[in-house]
Write a structure and sequence with these properties.
Length: about 300
Amino acid sequence: METTAVPRKVEHQQTDRGYVPVYATGVVEQPWASYTRTDHAVWDTLFERQCEMLPGRACQEFLDGVAKFGLGDGGIPKFADLNQVLGRTTGWELVAVEGLLPDEVFFDHLANRRFPVSWWIRKPEQLDYLSEPDLFHDLFGHVPLLLNPVFADYMQAYGRGGMKAFAIGPEALMNLTRLYWYTVEFGLIATGEGMRIYGAGIVSSKGESIYSLDADAPNRIGFDLERVMNTRYRIDTYQQTYFVIESFEQLFEATTPDFTPIYARLRERTAHAAADVLATDRVYHRGSREGFATNADT
Ligand code: PHE
Ligand code: FE
């Protein structure tokens, strides 16, 4: 398997989890031996809870990924073990990080088929809500689909596109971030068996796994690239709109063209609110908006 270039050590940094070396790449060793019995129990609880609910809700590609990794063997998985499977299937590699990375560092990892995973796991009193991504979100939410060849290629293309958007400027970056949000994090997929979840933010949340599919309040709207890139989103509540793809191939193909002219076009337009339904939308479900927060979205 290909190895990560030796990370350049930048400095030591005080974090919630102690004094740790931080590298330019943000990569650390997964400190597997330091997980407590409570940490492992939190993983097992969250894992069992999601696995009970997800058949018939998560897309088959996601469920297949979970099974192939053996994520439910009990206790927090070792990234090195998962990397064996990933490396020979799609050539991706997990790297452990402390948490969110600077945009350009994150993009560089994805562009090189490395997926950064926060190594630490939430506390037992945080099972249902966390304001920053932890191991359960990053690993359970994102990694199973990295075994799907088309999705794996999409993630790499996104990383490359990210470097480009970063060079173009903050507006372009915002448009691209919206695409990530409404696909990788909160995407739904319409299958022959019905509507399914593929977004990591949904699949790692018990509440939103139910809400995104069953609730009357949110809109479910057919994926349209420019529409998505021009739509604000919420970071503090369940989504007000979910965008629905028909296949990962559709998503990959729609995002293949050069975005440069799209970024230029979108600069001239105002973004849609998260809850908006447009006349041009292909509407799977028009939300009742019940309980929607009315303060501004991102
Ligand atoms: N095609 C996009 C561009 O030219 C890159 C990209 C691919 C972005 C896939 C997101 C997802 O910028
Ligand atoms: Fe995420």
